[in-house]
Design a protein that fits this description.
By secondary structure, this protein is of the alpha+beta class. It is 43% helix and 14% strand. The chain has a four-stranded antiparallel β-sheet. A two-stranded antiparallel sheet has the order 4-5. Strands 7-8 form a two-stranded antiparallel ribbon.
Length: 167
């Protein structure tokens, strides 16, 4: 029942939102109508009013931080429990995908431990602390230019990787 249109062009976002609202109304789906705003918060994201920048809301960041800190204090987890926390972390870290690279041991722990509960590995605790420390840096400038080249990387020695580049 919600649709959000983001654009650096207010007219384009308004038009898109109105078209979706009209389409949903035509088929009998209730909507909340169209609201146009500059900046604000939606779905756990904060959009700057003056610049085209988005970041997780402070509430989202605190919830993630407190969840990770509680897990670290407890010191024990199942792979499934850690997977839930990593899901929340991943959602936020997608703004800066390169930050996902710090969680190698975390993913190994999830896969290896599964349903059982064991003491967190030191490497997992370290990576979770790194992730929490990086949370305040998360933002994405929506006006960044697009790269005209596609770069493919892969750890496989016989796959498409090795830094292949398609123009």
């Amino acid at each position: 029942d919600n649709f959000i249109a983001f654009s650096q062009n207010e007219e384009a976002a308004t038009s898109a939102a109105e078209l979706v609202n009209e389409s949903m109304t035509k088929v009998g789906l209730p909507t909340h109508g169209v609201e146009v705003t500059r900046g604000g918060q939606a779905l756990g994201w904060s959009f700057d009013e003056g610049e085209p920048v988005m970041r997780p809301t402070p509430r989202r960041l605190w919830r993630i931080r407190l969840g990770v800190e509680a897990l670290l204090e407890r010191g024990w987890a199942s792979g499934k429990e850690l997977e839930i926390i990593v899901g929340h972390l991943t959602f936020a870290l997608l703004l800066r995908r390169e930050m996902l690279s710090i969680m190698g041991a975390v993913y190994l722990f999830i896969r290896h431990v599964g349903e059982g509960r064991v003491r967190l590995w030191p490497a997992v605790a370290r990576e979770l602390r790194w992730a929490v420390s990086l949370l305040p840096l998360l933002h994405r400038r929506l006006s960044a230019t697009w790269c005209s080249r596609v770069v493919i990387t892969d750890a496989s020695p016989y796959g498409m990787g090795g830094g292949s580049c398609l123009s």
